[in-house]
Design a protein that fits this description.
- By secondary structure, the chain is an alpha/beta fold.
- The chain has 2 domains: about 150 residues, Alpha-Beta Complex (Aspartate Aminotransferase, domain 1), CATH 3.90.1150.10; about 240 residues, 3-Layer(aba) Sandwich (Aspartate Aminotransferase, domain 2).
- Strands 1, 2, 3, 4, 5, 6, 7, 10 and 11 form a 9-stranded mixed sheet that branches. The protein has a two-stranded antiparallel sheet with strand order 8-9. The chain has a two-stranded antiparallel ribbon with strand order 12-13.
- Helix 4 links the parallel strand 2 and strand 3.
- Helix 1 crosses helix 8.
- It is globular, with a radius of gyration of 22 Å.
- It binds pyridoxal-5'-phosphate (PLP).
- The site of pyridoxal-5'-phosphate (PLP) has 15 residues, from helix 3 and helix 4.
Length: about 400
Amino acid sequence: MSATSKGAAKVPAARMQVPLLDLKAQYLDFKAELLPLLESVYESQHFILGKEVTALEAAIARYTGSAYGIGVSSGTDALLLALMALDIGAGDEVITSPYTFFATGGTIARVGARPVFLDIDPRTFNLSPAAVERFVAEECEARQGGLVNRATGGKVKALMPVHLYGQCAEMQPLITLARAHGLKLIEDAAQAIGSEYRGKRAGSLGDIGCFSFFPSKNLGAFGDAGLCTANDAALAERMRVLRVHGGKPKYYHALIGGNFRIDEVQAAVLNVKLPHLDRWTDGRQKNAARYAERFAAASLTGTVTLPHAMPGDRHIYNQFVIRAPKRDLLKQYLADAGVGSEIYYPVPLHLQACFGYLGGKAGDCPESERAAAETLALPVYAELAPAQLEYVVDVIRAFYA
Ligand SMILES: *Cc1c(COP(=O)(O)O)cnc(C)c1O
């Protein structure tokens, strides 16, 4: 489908190529430091749970303001391990946002629990505390010292807010609810390393924080990797044991775990990149501010809606996501002009075919559905040049002209 065929403005010649993310530019930043370290890992031939993993776990724990870090194989496995460690399974329910990457809901279902998808705050795209409060007050009751969903009879065991696009969910009301009803709090912080809520870092706000080092995250590995944070020593130890099939001592299994280990090679990459992270985050924040300035200068702020950063909190802009009229045509128009963009996420989880058994239907989470129809992520990576950013805004202005 070409934009012109639908009556949109004529496509300008691609004057510039602006990818959604340019990892090659970042690689040049740390390559010289990394190659000798990788060589030392290769020379050691020690690939599993060695000193790079130990160093990374300590460094990320410190960076996120948490007591413990447990390196794992991916962000998805971090969520899975968190749910397993908190003993969440069949008959249990976990409240989360439907407007997120699939893993958030997928892992809840994979442990045999029921995801309860509640709507988002349209300003931040994060789980709405008001929606959670309403669900707990109107659809649940206290029974046998726990919280039971009256319609299903399931035990509501945990809240799993997502810090979407790099901004923390509104945590205080969720923490209050969790305390009042004995719920566990798992942060899906896959997109939020270094994000802050009221001065506290993502991953230190709940019982377990789950991070992803997928290459497109702000701190990306050279493949899949992730990490769980915790402040409770016993919970951290339980995750360490579950990470190696539940064997402790080795070959003696009181628990059924899995292979959720992170590789030494990935840990080495992350150890080299972590000291650069604040500078890269700063670059993303400057680009977000520059977008705000350029969109205003182009008189587009009445047309598109820019991201809303909660005052006082630290947004790390894993994604810079706007709401745009005629979003799909705009995306095509940008692509024709050489600009990468992406739709995160086109189908909210309560409407995914695989979750049909939960009985979700259109209209259940109207703000999530509206976000899925309106949002578009633009390039915001640290190495994005001012001229490239201005070009992105120029192309958007031409589209709406
Ligand atoms: C990336 C991501 C995950 C999963 O992380 P992987 O490392 O890709 O398994 C989970 N939740 C959210 C919100 C994510 O963005």
